[in-house]
Design brief:
GO terms for molecular function: transferase activity. The protein has 20 helices and 17 strands. With 535 residues, it is of the alpha/beta class. The chain starts with a strand and ends in a 15-residue tail after the last helix. Bound molecules: coenzyme A (COA).
């Protein structure tokens, strides 16, 4: 291992200005997180508590082992999408430790529109299940939901990836031996009732949790039968008559205690397949990343300096340092876990794509997880590189990256554009987890390029039609395109649409990766079968 040598000048004006710029971004992230953590409106929260119920975030806190971290996923999903709804889409998802075992926790927030599911709530639930499934994490679902948010039917009901996929995945996960526990802490109506019904063990709170395919009103309308909540779907009935639920709890706290007991009896926790080394802090302060990431999109970031601040002891065994130098590849450890890192240090050329292919192949051979740090304008264009076969070099990189079945992760640290975004393990290639830093951006191309391309197309059409336009008219045409691309490419838009699992700040990155590397080291190894490499 070689210690990466930092050339950073922490006394420079540039460092100071970058740091100030990044600190403002981090403050914005924390403000958004705070707004999400509050939940629904004051009145809804007060009513919730008055019913004797514990607020959802506190339920999660009481469920997990005291003092252990909770890695929240999709916390900004749905940001600014639904009127009067805070980010998070009315559901909390994340990984927490229960009785010493990592579990996926999914909790409805009944203070947000009765805990009903918007399209984004469905996608967030489905995503959490997929992460749990891939990593064989037990799933604990705290159910307190009115089911579908009826006005958003098209995003909830008909398609794959929506509400029905929750059930489909429950069955698939169960077949693969992933334990699933539901805690019915509120109403579970119609489709919602199938979530607990498809679980292995169900806890229900007396006088508070109800499960039925149709509530009392619907039952009366459909059959004329008059029946109260308790008789139709209460905890006592389901635990003693129907057998739909298994454990009757007296209140939320009791239900959470029973749930912890269930997790305790799930059997042996899988052991890691790898022995991590003792964790070490990087040799350089992680906070310095704030001063390294360029505040100006036109000025590239020195990403080698970032890698030096993410790996243990800043020790990095670089692979092919003299070849394909627009991509840095090599091995280091994060909190003791070995990881293969690919970090952009410029535009992707033929050599960089070939190096990436070779490197990914080695990591697969050695069963080492991959971490892509994406900050790339794309692949090089032009006659020379085309004649060198950049298309087949890029295809090789994509084949290697896409085929690799080792755990793989992406962090968008800077601007990640076009095919570069895709080749650096973009979302369509199903990373095990994907994050953006607050400065992360991604789009087909940058705002200025998009505005210019569309202006050129318009100018050609104008030419065909014998029209011309003034500089001012051209600018008036370009300005809204630029704005649209700027809004699109931001990390928070990606988080709102669940195109990334979360926005994390640089200083959290090592801890987040440590947790994920630990979890993925405990799942069974999957063989990789590479697709055809175009030679
Ligand atoms: N679709 C859309 N909005 C819904 C909704 C639904 N299924 N259920 C509740 N809401 C909205 C309410 O309109 C209200 O909105 P507001 O805050 O803008 O006023 C908010 O959610 C809270 O509802 P409220 O009834 O005041 O809360 P509550 O805690 O007393 O009861 C429920 C929550 C979920 C038990 C109750 O609203 C209910 O029974 N909803 C219908 C459930 C149902 O039949 N779902 C079938 C879906 S397949």
């Amino acid at each position: 291992m070689t210690k990466l040598k930092s050339l950073l000048d922490t006394g420079s004006e540039d460092f100071r200005a970058n740091t100030a710029h990044y600190r403002a971004k981090v403050a914005e992230l924390h403000a958004l997180r705070r707004s999400q953590r509050v939940g629904g409106p004051e009145s809804a929260r007060a009513r919730h508590v008055k019913k004797g119920k514990i607020l959802p975030r506190e339920r999660v806190e009481r469920l997990i082992d005291p003092g252990t971290p909770f890695l929240e996923l999709g916390e900004l999903a749905g940001l600014d999408k639904y009127d009067g709804v805070p980010p998070g889409a009315g559901i909390i998802t994340g990984i927490g430790v229960i009785e010493g075992r990592h579990c996926m926790i999914i909790a409805n927030d009944a203070t947000v529109k009765g805990g009903t599911y918007f399209g984004m709530t469905c996608r967030k639930h489905v995503r959490a299940q997929r992460i749990a499934w891939a990593n064989r994490l037990p799933v604990v679902t705290l159910v307190d939901s009115g089911g579908a948010f009826l006005p958003d039917q098209e995003n909830i009901f008909p398609d794959e990836g929506q509400f029905g996929s929750i059930f489909h995945q429950q069955v698939g996960m169960s077949g693969d031996g992933v334990p699933q526990i539901a805690v019915v802490m509120g109403p579970c109506t119609a489709g919602g009732a199938y979530i607990p019904a498809l679980c292995d063990e169900v806890v229900i709170v007396r006088g508070q949790g109800f499960m039925y395919l149709g509530g009392p009103e619907l039952t009366f309308a459909a059959t004329g039968e008059k029946v109260d909540n308790e008789t139709l779907g209460g905890g006592k009935m389901h635990c003693s008559v129907s057998g739909v639920t298994d454990h009757l709890a007296e209140d939320d706290a009791h239900a959470l205690a029973i749930t912890r007991e269930i997790v305790k009896h799930l059997g042996e926790r899988p052991s890691p397949r790898k022995t991590p080394a003792p964790p070490r802090a990087p040799a350089y302060a992680v906070e310095e990343i704030y001063g390294i990431v360029s505040r100006d999109p036109k000025v590239p970031t020195e990403n080698r300096e970032i890698v030096a601040r993410l790996v243990d002891g800043s020790d990095f065994h670089e692979f092919k340092p003299l070849y394909g130098d627009t991509l840095m590849t090599g091995w280091g450890r994060i909190h003791g876990h070995e990881v293969g890192i690919l970090a952009n240090t410029g535009v992707l050329f033929v050599e960089a794509a070939l190096k990436a292919t070779h490197f990914i192949n080695l990591c697969v051979q050695r069963d080492i997880p991959l971490l892509f740090l994406a900050d790339v304008n794309g692949f090089m264009v032009g006659r020379e590189v085309e004649q060198m076969g950049i298309a087949k070099a890029g295809a090789k990189m994509i084949t290697a990256m896409s085929s690799a079945r080792v755990p793989k992760f992406t962090i968008i640290t800077g601007g990640s554009y076009g095919a570069g975004y895709l080749a650096m393990l973009g979302r369509p290639f199903q990373p095990d987890a994907m994050f953006a830093w607050p400065t992360g951006r991604a789009a087909i191309m940058g705002p200025e390029q998009a505005a210019s391309v569309l202006a050129q197309v318009r100018a050609q059409i104008n030419g065909r039609e014998g029209k011309t336009w003034t500089k001012e008219e051209e600018e008036a045409f370009k300005a809204p395109i630029r704005k649209e691309y700027e809004d699109f490419q931001g990390a928070y838009n990606f988080a709102s649409n669940l195109w990334v699992d979360s926005v994390i700040e640089p200083c959290e990155t090592r801890d987040v990766m440590a947790l994920l590397l630990d979890i993925t080291s405990r799942r069974p190894k999957v063989e990789t079968h590479f697709g055809v490499f175009r030679m």
